[in-house]
Amino acid sequence: MSRSVSSSARGLSSLTFTVGGLMLGLLILLVCLIFSVSLGAAEIPLNQILTAFIQFDGSREHLIIQTIRLPRSLIALLVGSALAVSGALMQGLTRNPLADPGILGIESGAALAVVATIFVFGTSSLSILTIVAFLGAGVTAMLVYFLSSLGRGGATPLNITVAGAALTALISSLTTAILIVSQRTLEEIRFWLAGSLAGRDINILLQVLPFVATGLVLAFALGRQITTMSLGEDVAKGLGQQTAWVKITTAISVVLLAGSSVSLAGPIGFIGLVVPHMVRFFIKADYRWILPYSAVVGATLLLVADIAARVLLKPQELPVGVMTALVGAPFFVYLAKSKVKK
Amino acid sequence: MKVDWLVIRSETISLRIDRRVPPMLLCLAVMVVVAMVMNLGRGEYPISPLDIVKTVLGIDTGNPDHAFVIYNLRLPRTLVAFMVGMALAISGTIFQGITRNPLADPGIIGINAGASLAAVAVIVLFPLAPIYTLPLSAFAGALLMAGLIYSLAWNNGSSPVLFILMGVGLSAIASAFTSLMITFGDIYSVSDALVWLAGSVYGRTWEQVFSFLPWLMVFVPMALVLARHLNALNLGDDVAKGLGTRVEWQRGLLVLVAVALAGAGVATAGMIGFVGLIAPHLGRQLVGTNHEGLIPTSALLGGMLVVVADFLGRTLFAPIEIPCGVVTAAVGAPYFLYLLIRNRKK
Fold it and tell me: Does the pTM exceed 0.80?
C-alpha cells in the first residue's frame, strides 16, 4: 500500500522532472534564438531586435534582422529539430544506435540530384535546387525501402541498413564521378555540399515549412509506437502492434523531415546521429519524450553551430555542416565517456 | 562438414591449409596475369598480348612506342592497382576475423576518416610535398585515429559500446575538418583530393609503386604469420584464451597490420570501396574460413578485382576515364544487394 503511494509519488515527480527539463530546454532555445539574431558580421544590439518588429523603420539593422537573420535563425531551428527527430525515429525503428537518416540514402540521393542538375543544366536558382533535392531524397528512400523489402523477411532493420548502405555507396560514387569530370560543377556546389544556411530567404522557408510541420506532427504522434518497436519487431507484433503500418508511417515522416532539411540546407551530418544519443543519456527509453527532447536539443545545437559558423572567422563564413561536428562532437565524447559505465 | 586438409610439417614450420587452396591460388594467379595483360593491352593505344609479353620480357618488338607506353604509363598503374587491391583485401579479411562480423570493413574504426583527413590535408595544404609522404601521412592519420579511439574507449578493458561511440564522434570531427579543407582549399588541389578520395590509380608512377612496396613487404608476411591466431580469435575471446592465445597482444598486432595495409593502400590510391568487403566474402566461398588459406586467396581476389575495375573504368566510356573506386562501388553495391536477395530463398 505504502509502496504504491510512494511509487506514484515518485512517478509524479519524475514526470515533473521530464516536463521541467523540456521547459528548460525551450528556454535555452529561445535565448539561443535571440543571440542568433543579434550576432553576426554586423553587430546589432539587443534592443534593436525588438524594435525591428514593433517599429520597423527601414534602417539597415532592421533590414538585416528581418530579411537575413530571422529567416536564417528560423531555418536553423527547423532544420535542427527535423534532423534530430528523424535520427531518433530511425534509431528507434532500426534499433541500431548508428542509424541516421542517411541510412535511407536521403542525403546522398539529394546530393546526386543537385549535382546532376547543375552538371546538366548549368547554374540553377536555389528554389529549383531545393525542389530537386527533395525529389532526389524521396526517390532514393523509396528505392531503398523497395530493395530492402526484396530481402529475407521483408523490410527488416538489417535489410534496410544493408540496402541503404549499398545504395548510398553507389550513389555517392556516381556523385563523386560527376564532380571529378566537371570541375565547374565542383566549384559551384562544394559549399552547398558541406551544408550551409547562408543565402536562404523566407520564401524558401515557407515553401518547405508544410513538409516539416507534417513530418514533426507525424513523428510526435508515433512516439508510443516507436517505443514499442524499439523493443524488437517480434515483441511489438506479440503486443499487437501493426508493425507494417508503423514502419511505413515512420519512413514517410523521416523522408519528410530529412528530405526537407537536406533540401533547405544541404547535407548536415552529425545531428541526426548524435542528438538522440545525447537525449537518451537522460531519458533512457520513452520515445514520447525522446522525440520532443531531440527536437529541442537538435534545434539548439544547430543554432549554436550556425552562430559559431558566422562569428568565428568574421566576416568569412564557415559551412554550418562542419561546425555541427566541431561543436557537438567534443561535447558528445565527454558525455559518452562520463555516462557509459561499461 | 568434411574438409580435406593439407598438412605441411617440418623442423621449423607447421602449417595446415585447406586442400582447395593451392590449386585455387594457382588458378587465381593465372587469372591475375591475364587481367593484367588485358589492362596493359587496352586503351587509347592498343597493344596485342604477344607484344605485351615480349616488351615486359625485354624483347624488342620493333615498335619503340610499346616500351614507352607499357613501362611508363600502364605497368606502374596496373601494379599499383594490384598491390592496393591485395592490401585492402587482406585488411578487410583481418577486420572481419577480428570483429567476427562479415560486414566489417576498415571504415568502422574511423580509419578511413583519419586516413582521408591526413591525406587530404597533405594534398591541399602542402601541394609541393613529395609523393612518398602521402602513404606515410595517411598511415599516421589512421593510426592516430585508431589509437585515440582505443584509448578513449578504455574502461578497464576495451569496451565495445564506447568503441563504437568514440568512433562515431571522432570520425565526425575528422570528416568535418576534411570537409572544411575541401570547401576552402584551392580548387585544383581540391580536385586532386577528390580524385584521390574517389579511389583512382590514374597517373600512378613507379615512384608510387616503390613507396608502397615496402609496406607490402613488411606487413603481408606478418599477416600470413598471424593468420593462425586469427582463426583462434574468430572463435571468441574466451575460447581463444582457453586455447592459449594472448588475446590483447594478438588483436593489437593484427589491428596494426590491418590499419597499416588499409592506410597505405588508401593513401596510394584513395578510398577504393568494397574491396575489403567483397574479396573475403568471395574467398570464403572458394576456400572456406581457415585464415591461413583465406588470406592469400582474398589477397589475389582483391588484386584482381581492382585491376579489372581499372580496366573497365578506362575502357567502358572511353575517352572519359572513370576512377576505379567508382567501378568497385558500382559493382560492389549490386553484389551486396544480390546477397541480400539471395538470402531470401534460403
Answer: no
